[in-house]
Each structure stands twice: as structure tokens, then as C-alpha cells.
Write a structure and sequence with these properties.
alpha/beta, 37% strand, binds flavin-adenine dinucleotide, 6-stranded mixed beta sheet, 4-stranded parallel beta sheet
Length: 212
């Protein structure tokens, strides 16, 4: 097939994750390009919370956000600091809510979804497949639970982004606590370390915190 200069530029998006779906959802703003998303659909990520500051370019996350906080806290053994904003709140969304919302918009934008690469002619390629992680790289490990308490025990106006009052023996380790309501919360443990055997250690730590 031959192409002429009036044809739209053909762009292949490899991987239907956050990056390429976010682009495809806004393809109507890029009228000179024709996008095709290629994803075999065999790598399924668990649903989880994404947290970020809602800057002006992320205003479109507002309708699907679960909650936002205008104050957030960092806690160490001997100090606690609260930061605040009036304009760019810390926001939580469910990963799947965002990707589903983007997929709907992408379909409205006539983006094609395919499970393998079959184009014969040259296309531009945006490759968002996750890179292989080199051995001994520092990794961020997460273990989390949504919990519900019987009584109002937490202040739901302040997100706790890092609470270092936990075991630091296997890496930099902190608790991430998002109070969605005064009785409903996400409790997450994050650890920056090389070791994969951390998972059991982190599950134990989470159990210990929940028992307190
Ligand atoms: C538990 C957890 C919590 C997180 N929390 C936050 C947070 O709070 N804030 C934040 O900013 N970020 C967070 N992140 C990071 C965030 O998920 C990533 O930054 C984001 O998903 C990266 O987007 P991406 O499109 O580059 O990759 P991904 O979203 O990983 O997408 C890559 C896509 O490539 C596809 N793929 C893989 N192999 C192939 C192949 N061979 N051919 C075609 N397609 C392929 C996969 O199916 C996948 O859909 C978190 C991540 C995790 C796991």
C-alpha cells in the first residue's frame, strides 16, 4: 500500500498500560495521527490505588478520583510534619477506573486495539512495555490492604504519605496510609530494597500493624 502526504501518520502504541491508554484517550487532540494499540492482553496487573498531586494537567482525573486530601503528613520516630495545599490536592484513583475510562475514550476516538503487530509498512512506534529489571536493582515493593474500623479512629482530612515508625532492618521501609473515610482506609507498606524475599517480611509487618 502506498501512502501520500495527506494521509495521517501511522503510530503504533506497544502496551495498553497507563501511558499509552492516557495518550489514546486524548487522540482527538492529535488529528494528524492514526493510533493502533498492540497488547497481547496476557499481562494482567492487579487493581491498585494510584496517588498523585492533581496538577492542572491531571484535572481530568477529578470525576473518577476516590478521594483527595489537602493535607499530608510525613512521620519519623521523633518528628511529624504536615504539608498542605489549597490548589493541588493529593488524589487517589483506582488504576482500573483510570484505564477503563481511557479505553472508553480511546474507542470513541476510533483507536484500533490489536493483540499482535501485523502492519506491513513503516510506522512510528511508542514502546511502553515494561523494561527487564536488572538483577540487584533497587525495587519498590508494596503490600497493602483496605481496612474498615468499627469506630471513627482516624482523621480523614490528612493522608499519611510516609510513616517511618516500622522495622527498617531490610531496607527503607514506610507505611502509607490513605484515610478514605474516618472508618475506611488503605494501609500500604512500601519498602525500597533489592531483596525479593521481602514479601513475607512485609506481610508479617502489615499483620503486626493491623493488630496494634
Ligand atoms: C502497586 C503499584 C502502585 C503504584 N502506585 C503508584 C502511585 O501511587 N503513583 C504513581 O504515579 N505510580 C504508581 N505506580 C506506578 C504506575 O503503575 C506506573 O508508573 C505506570 O503504570 C506506568 O505506565 P506504563 O504505561 O509505562 O506501564 P504499564 O502501566 O505497566 O503498562 C505496560 C503495558 O505493556 C503491556 N505489555 C507487556 N508486554 C507486552 C508485549 N510484549 N507486547 C505488548 N504489550 C505488552 C502490558 O500488558 C501493560 O498493559 C504504581 C505501580 C504499582 C504496581
Amino acid at each position: 500500500m502506498s501512502k501520500n502526504i495527506f494521509d495521517k501518520a501511522d503510530v503504533i502504541l506497544l502496551g495498553a498500560g497507563c501511558a499509552n491508554l492516557s495518550l489514546a484517550a486524548r487522540a482527538n487532540e492529535l488529528i494528524d495521527y492514526e493510533f493502533t494499540i498492540i497488547d497481547p492482553g496476557i499481562y494482567t496487573a492487579q487493581n491498585h490505588i494510584w496517588g498523585f498531586w492533581r496538577m492542572p494537567w491531571l484535572a481530568n482525573t477529578k470525576p473518577i478520583s476516590r478521594k483527595c486530601w489537602y493535607k499530608w503528613k510525613i512521620i519519623s520516630e521523633n518528628k511529624s510534619i504536615i504539608h498542605s495545599t489549597e490548589v493541588f490536592p493529593y488524589t487517589a484513583i483506582n488504576r482500573n477506573d483510570w484505564t477503563d475510562d481511557c479505553k472508553k475514550k480511546a474507542i470513541n476516538n476510533d483507536i484500533k486495539f490489536k493483540d499482535k503487530f501485523t502492519k506491513k509498512y513503516k510506522s512510528q512506534i511508542i514502546d511502553s512495555r515494561p523494561p527487564k529489571v536488572p538483577i540487584n536493582n533497587m525495587l519498590q515493593h508494596f503490600v497493602g490492604h483496605e481496612i474498615q474500623t468499627e469506630k471513627d479512629v482516624f482523621d480523614d482530612t490528612t493522608a499519611v504519605l510516609m510513616d517511618f515508625r516500622c522495622d527498617q532492618s531490610l531496607g527503607m521501609h514506610f507505611i502509607y496510609f490513605l484515610p478514605f473515610q474516618s472508618v475506611k482506609h488503605l494501609l500500604n507498606l512500601h519498602c525500597l530494597a533489592q531483596k525479593k524475599r521481602l514479601l513475607n517480611f512485609m506481610i508479617m509487618q502489615l499483620k503486626l500493624i493491623l493488630m496494634k
